[in-house]
Structures are given as structure tokens and as C-alpha cells.
Design goal:
Residues 197-346 form the NACHT domain. This protein is of the alpha+beta class and 758 residues long. The chain has 5 domains: 3-143; 152-369, P-loop containing nucleotide triphosphate hydrolases (Rossmann fold, 3-Layer(aba) Sandwich); 372-462, no CATH class; 469-580 and 591-619, no CATH class; 649-755, YVTN repeat-like/Quinoprotein amine dehydrogenase (Methylamine Dehydrogenase, Chain H). It contains 25 helices and 18 strands. The protein has a 5-stranded parallel sheet with strand order 2-3-4-1-5. Strands 8-9-10-11 form a 4-stranded antiparallel sheet, with no helix packed on it. It has a 4-stranded antiparallel sheet with strand order 12-18-13-14, with no helix packed on it. A hairpin with a 6-residue loop joins strand 13 (706-707) and strand 14. 36% of the residues are buried.
Length: 758
């Protein structure tokens, strides 16, 4: 759409929306039996209006040719306008309007059923998502325009950590009319200008914390108030630790508050390695200082909300405590106030972290202490919705399930939503008899089974009972190998990659997983990763209390040992690691210069996993392992002896391409040796005393004395501190020589360095 028609279309939709909101207000005063439906329509129309007002502001203030996404909204705006106009017509009192004005609005009757309202809201949500996505894309485009350009590649993020990532796309949100009081409390807290800066939502495993976090993140995003989100998840690579936490938050904030770009750009120019520094440095230089330096905010929103889910799934307790201490410093940030929602289990180190905060910094709410009647109500609505869907899909009797069965499930579930969700997935699983499976679930009563046993045993016992008696142990061993590996992996793998790592046929792995959809996320795409649906499944299988008491118990230490062994085998095998895996032009190519497609093609996902995580599995084994060479025990591992120095050798280093070895000696020389033959390539003479350190520059061409490796001639002598230098190496760009006595600038094209007292 062109600028004029685009702005005009936006204004038209905003105008009709305002009329509908006004009509809804009239209905809410006059109609008592449909207040929830009226509020739902009014709220959704308000959400769309809020987004379109931001789009209009963007269109009015920017070069429209750069806003390619919002320029493509004409069709959606036209359809949305048509639907809203039809909605307005149906809401208008019509011919009886004069009569209405005489007798008041009490004669009004809400024209829609709840099901009709469901359709209206669902349709409007589609437009809302389209408009919101277009707004976010073009806001980011503006942020990254030439005058505000920022190389976000220097800020590595944790893939899949944001609430709207593909990984989180199909995970549950709160159903309508559930968690209403809690969600409203959080909304009110965020809008309260005098409110505390942090809202801590805690609860035991399975109480629905992540579902609530996704719901509020989505809600604040739809109102243009979400600043950032980070959903921790153990076993999901960088999502399971704090290494990319603040860089991900900073990247999200850039999209909504471009005023922080100058501050972040200044930090990156000063220290391009900031993303690898201490958490305190990352927070202060990428978030706190840039926010404090904002001169003008983009949005007139009251606050920016940051949602942090499952903080307890961050690996290091010390990192968790550090994150909490740093977040507490956001209390008085201006001109962009922050509100931070944190969800976690009430672990001791997290409780202590909050306790260390100053008074007035946070407010908390414990989910499993919410009144039982509220939890029962929400779980009942969830069960009725999910089981009702199963009834329609499987064409069951209209009275299935019986009301007493739903009430029994509610009693078994409270306070865990994960129980209700797992039961519904199990009952509705492919090839099942929902009636038989539901009856089986109800056999696991509270008096006999724990909460996690009631959650997971029905599905697992059913699978085991389907095996022949003489095949059960074989089935259990395969279960422990495949499922046991999945639950302790450091990062999820696809069935293809898992088969390569475990050396198990892919068909066998797929077969084992086909019946576990109620406890695992098993995608139809064989190249997509298999994931845990909930961390409590891992806890159920590896709990030490289950050892000897459960057929499904997984020995976590033994599984880590096997995975470490598989990783080492994969790396050292014929299809494993070799020199120059990516077929690069030569040594010294920077990692940033290699595109992801080359890496993915050259290093399969299973091999990448082995390289990254073999040490993690090794560290979690109870005993240290002595790794022996594959060669015979009497094999002489010495390739050659390098002889030639007349005094002690003080330092040795390899050239970047592995072709040369440089040795520094107390005989005042540096010698270069060919690694293949062991012969002396050249002797570098000229030092006035013993040489105590040696290093190759990144390009490996030159050698404070600089020596040319090709000719053995001294290129130049560098000024350095007047003391012994015992350690020397180059900065990655070869411009600085780093020593234990300080940094020394290096002339262009250094090759090799030898040092002696100056």
C-alpha cells in the first residue's frame, strides 16, 4: 500500500474500533449475563487499536519506502475493516434507537453467544498477530537503519529462548477464563508506577509457571510493552546456562527501544568480546548504562516488561544469584522504567537471592499456595476443554467423559497442571482407546502413588504391559538407552542425529518414540529435535529414590558415561574430526568469516554435539577415566627427538598451520623445526641473553625480536619493559603482543617472537 492509502486504512480501522469499544461499554453497563463475552470483544478490539496506533506513528515519522512489511498490510487491513464494520452493525441498537434513548440501555440485549464470541476473538487475534509482527519487523528495520546501524552478530543470542521463538510456538498458553485473577494481578503490578520492579512467581514443578509466563509475555507484546523474554530450559544448549542471557535480553531491547543502540555500539567498539565477559560487565555495559543514557524514548508506554521463565533451570547456582543481584539494580532506571517477571521453583539459593534484595525491590506469589478452589476451577476448565476436543475428534458419546470422572481427575491433579496436561495427551494418543486409557489413569490413586507416579506411570506401564513377558527386559534396556539419553543430553537432537551418536538404527529409535508422545515432543520431521515436554519427566526417571523401586529408573551417571564414550568414538572415527573439516583456503580464517551453511554441511549435527559436549558428560561421571591410546600398549608414542640447542629449552610452540615448531633456549637462540621430518629449518640468532618465551603470530609468517621464518633474518626489535618476560603470545588480530610484563604494539606483518631481558 502507498503511504496515503496505508495511513488512511489504518485510521479507518482505528475509527471503527473506537465505535465498537464505545458500544461495548454501553452493553457492559446494561447487560449483566454476558459481561465476560463483552469484555473479551472489547479487550481484543482495544489490542488491535493499540498496535495500529503505533503503526500509524511509524508511518508518519519514517521514510515509508523502508517500511516494507507494514506497506504490505493493505489486504489485511481491508479485511479487518470489513469484519469490524460488520461487527459494528450487529452491535448497533438499530431502528429502536430512539426508543432505547427514552427508556435507557436496560433494554439492550447482547447479540452474540459465547461460541460466536470465540469465533470473533479468534479472527481478530489473527489480524492482531499480523499487525504486531509487521510492526516489530519494521521497528527493527528502523533501529538498524544506517544512522543507527548496529552489528547484532557481535551479540550472540540463545536460540529459542524468546517466548515467540519457533521452539516455544506450540507450547501451552492459559485457556480463556483460567488464571484470570493472577494474570490481572500481574498486569496491574506492571502498570503501577509506584510498584516494585520485580514480580517473583514461584511454584513447585508442574504448577503451570511456564504457561503463565508465555501468556503474560504474549499479552504484554500485544500491547507493545514487552521489552524482552528469556525462557531457561535445562538440556537446551545456551538456554540452560547464563552465558547468553544478557546478550539475548539486550538484543530484544534493541528492537523496542532503539535509544539504547548508541550505548551498545559504544560498548562493542570498545570491547568486541563483551559477550564473553563476566555477567556483571555484560549487564552494566549492554543493558544498564545504555538504558540510562537514552535521550528520548520511542514509546509512550508506561514501562517495558521483561519476562524470565524457569530461572531454576540455569546451570550454575552462582550465576542465578548474580542475575538476581544485577536485576535488582533496575529498580530506579529512567527514562525507560523496567518491570521484570521471574518464574522459578522455590529453591533455597533462589530464595536466598531474593532475600538479599533491598526492601521494596520485589513482590512474590507462590502458585501452590493459591486457594485450592481457584486451582480446581482452572484445572477443571482445562480438562473439560482438552477431553472435549478428544471426544469430538474420536467421535465418542456426548456424555464422555462422565462428570464424576472429571472431578476425580481434578482431585488427582491439584495443584499440578502438568498432571492434567500429561493425562490428556496420554488419553488422546494415537491408537489408544480414550475410554480404556482414562479408566486406567483413574486406577492410580493418591493413597498408593506419588504425584509424579500418577503423572507418568499410566503411559509407561501401558507400554510395558504390551510387551511379551520374555521381551520386557530387552524393551526396558532399549528404553533406558534411548529415552535415558534424551533426558540427559546437553542439547536436544533429532532422531537422525541421535541414531548416529548412539549407533542405533534410526528406525528403532523412531519405533521406541512413537508411543511416547504423551511425555516427549516427537516431531514428524526426522531432522527436528526431540524434546522433553516437561522437566519433571527427567526428575521422575533419574530420582535416586526410584533405584530398585522402578523398572523405568535411569542411572544418570552411567548414561553420562555412555554418552561421553559415544562422543569420543564419534570424533575419533573414520567420519569424525580431521584437519580442515570445512575445506578452508588456509589457516587463520576467522570463525565469523565461515557461513553457517558451510559448517552445517561439513560437520553433521551429531558430530557438532560430540565436539561441544563430550566434556560435559565426562564431568558428570562419578569416577575419573584414564583414556588410553587405541594403539598397542608397547607402541612408542615419540615421533622424533629434536636435537641442536646447546643449553636448556625454555619454551616450545607450534605454528598455526602445524608445519613448524619453534623452540626457545637459554643458548640465546630460537630454532625452527619441521614437524614432519624433525629437521632444523633455521636458527634465529641475535638475542643477547637466554630466550624465555616464544610465540607465532596468527598468520605465522614473521618473528622483543621479530624474525622472518622463511629466511631466518631479524626483522626488528620491539621495545618492551626492562625485565624478564616469561610468557608471550599474540592478540587474535596480531596487532598486540601480550606478555606477562604488559602489552607491546607490534609492527605490521610479525612472524615469530623470541624474548630475552632488555
Amino acid at each position: 500500500m502507498d503511504g496515503l492509502s496505508g495511513a488512511a486504512s489504518v485510521i479507518a480501522v482505528i475509527d471503527v474500533s473506537a465505535k465498537i469499544i464505545s458500544l461495548c461499554l454501553q452493553y457492559s453497563k446494561a447487560v449483566k449475563d454476558a459481561k465476560d463475552d463483552i469484555e473479551r470483544v472489547q479487550r481484543k478490539v482495544s489490542d488491535i487499536t493499540h498496535i495500529l496506533e503505533q503503526i500509524k506513528q511509524l508511518l508518519d515519522s519514517q521514510d515509508k519506502t523502508r517500511l516494507s512489511t507494514t506497506q504490505g498490510l493493505f489486504s489485511s487491513l481491508a479485511k479487518c475493516l470489513k469484519e469490524l464494520e460488520n461487527l459494528q452493525v450487529e452491535l448497533e441498537p438499530g431502528k429502536g434507537r430512539k426508543t432505547m434513548s427514552r427508556i435507557g440501555f436496560r433494554a439492550l440485549k447482547w447479540p452474540f453467544t459465547s461460541k460466536h464470541v470465540d469465533k470473533i476473538v479468534s479472527s481478530l487475534e489473527g489480524y492482531e498477530q499480523s499487525f504486531s509482527l509487521a510492526l516489530q519487523v519494521d521497528q527493527t528495520t528502523v533501529v538498524l537503519s544506517i544512522d543507527q546501524k548496529l552489528d547484532l552478530a557481535k551479540l550472540p543470542i540463545a536460540q529459542g529462548a524468546s517466548y515467540d521463538s519457533h521452539t516455544e510456538e506450540h507450547n501451552a498458553r492459559c485457556l480463556p477464563n483460567t488464571r484470570t485473577a493472577l494474570l490481572q494481578d500481574i498486569t496491574n503490578w506492571a502498570q503501577d508506577k509506584d510498584g516494585k520492579s520485580i514480580f517473583w512467581l514461584s511454584g513447585m514443578a508442574g504448577t503451570g509457571k511456564s504457561t503463565i509466563a508465555r501468556t503474560i509475555a504474549e499479552s504484554f507484546a500485544s500491547h507493545g510493552q514487552l521489552g524482552a523474554s528469556f525462557f531457561f530450559k535445562r538440556g537446551e544448549g545456551e538456554r540452560g546456562n547464563a552465558s547468553r542471557f544478557f546478550t539475548t535480553i539486550a538484543t530484544d531491547l534493541v528492537a523496542c527501544e532503539p535509544g539504547i543502540v548508541p550505548g551498545i555500539r559504544k560498548t562493542l567498539n570498545k570491547d568486541s568480546a563483551i559477550s564473553y565477559k563476566a555477567l556483571k560487565d555484560q549487564f552494566e555495559k549492554l543493558i544498564l548504562q545504555p538504558l540510562l543514557e537514552i535521550k528520548q524514548t520511542r514509546s509512550q508506554a508506561l514501562v517495558r516488561v521483561i519476562v524470565i521463565d524457569a530461572l531454576d533451570e540455569c546451570e550454575q547456582e552462582a550465576d542465578i544469584r548474580a542475575i538476581l543481584q544485577l536485576l535488582a539494580q533496575t529498580k530506579d532506571i529512567r527514562p525507560v522504567p523496567l518491570r521484570i517477571v521471574v518464574t522459578s521453583r522455590p529453591e533455597l539459593h533462589i530464595r536466598l537471592g531474593f532475600k538479599e534484595m533491598a526492601n521494596g525491590t520485589y513482590q512474590d506469589l507462590v502458585l501452590h499456595e493459591v486457594p485450592k478452589s481457584t486451582i480446581e476451577h482452572d484445572i477443571r476448565l482445562f480438562l473439560e476443554h482438552e477431553l472435549g476436543t478428544i471426544r469430538k475428534e474420536r467421535m465418542l458419546a456426548p456424555d464422555w467423559p462422565a462428570q464424576q470422572q472429571i472431578l476425580a481427575l481434578v482431585e488427582l491433579a491439584v495443584p499440578l497442571f502438568i498432571y492434567a496436561a500429561t493425562v490428556c495427551r496420554y488419553v488422546g494418543s494415537k491408537g489408544s482407546s480414550p475410554t480404556a486409557f482414562l479408566n486406567k489413569v483413574l486406577q492410580y490413586q493418591k493413597a498408593t502413588f506419588s504425584q509424579l507416579e500418577r503423572t507418568y506411570l499410566p503411559a509407561l506401564d501401558q507400554l510395558l504391559s504390551e510387551q511379551e513377558e520374555d521381551e520386557k527386559e530387552t524393551w526396558l534396556q532399549a528404553f533406558r538407552e534411548v529415552v535415558g539419553s534424551i533426558i540427559v543430553l546437553e542439547s536436544p537432537l533429532s532422531t537422525v542425529s541421535l541414531a548416529c551418536l548412539l549407533q542405533v538404527p534410526q528406525e528403532e529409535i523412531q519405533c521406541r518414540l512413537d508411543s511416547l508422545h504423551s511425555v516427549l515432543s516427537v516431531p514428524n520431521n526426522k531432522d527436528a529435535p526431540v524434546r522433553l515436554l516437561h522437566s519433571s519427566f527427567r526428575e521422575f526417571l533419574v530420582s535416586p529414590k526410584k533405584q530398585g523401586n522402578s523398572s523405568f529408573w535411569v542411572n544418570k551417571e552411567r548414561t553420562h558415561q555412555k554418552l561421553a564414550s559415544h562422543c569420543l568414538r564419534l570424533m575419533s572415527g573414520s567420519s569424525g574430526l580431521r584437519q580442515n573439516m570445512c575445506s578452508l583456503s588456509g589457516p587463520g580464517v576467522l570463525r565469523g568469516e565461515i557461513d553457517e551453511k558451510t559448517i552445517a554441511t561439513s560437520l553433521p549435527t551429531d558430530l557438532q554435539y560430540a565436539c561441544r559436549y563430550w566434556i560435559n558428560h565426562l564431568k558428570q561421571m562419578p569416577e575419573k577415566i584414564k583414556m588410553l591410546s587405541i594403539a598397542e600398549t608397547d607402541w612408542d608414542a615419540c615421533r622424533s627427538t629434536l636435537e641442536g640447542h646447546s643449553d636448556e629449552v625454555s619454551a616450545v610452540t607450534f605454528s598455526p598451520d602445524g608445519q613448524l615448531v619453534a623452540s626457545a633456549s637459554d643458548d640465546n637462540t630460537v630454532r625452527l623445526w619441521e614437524t614432519v621430518t624433525g629437521t632444523c629449518h633455521s636458527t634465529l640468532e641475535g638475542h643477547s641473553s637466554e630466550v624465555s618465551a616464544v610465540a607465532f603470530s596468527p598468520d605465522g609468517q614473521l618473528t622483543v625480536r621479530l624474525w622472518e621464518t622463511a629466511t631466518g633474518t631479524c626483522r626488528s626489535t620491539l621495545d618492551s619493559p626492562s625485565a624478564y618476560i616469561d610468557h608471550v603470545d599474540f592478540s587474535p588480530d596480531g596487532q598486540i603482543l601480550r606478555t606477562d610484563r604488559g602489552d607491546i604494539p607490534v609492527p605490521q606483518n610479525p612472524y615469530i617472537i623470541g624474548t630475552n631481558p632488555i
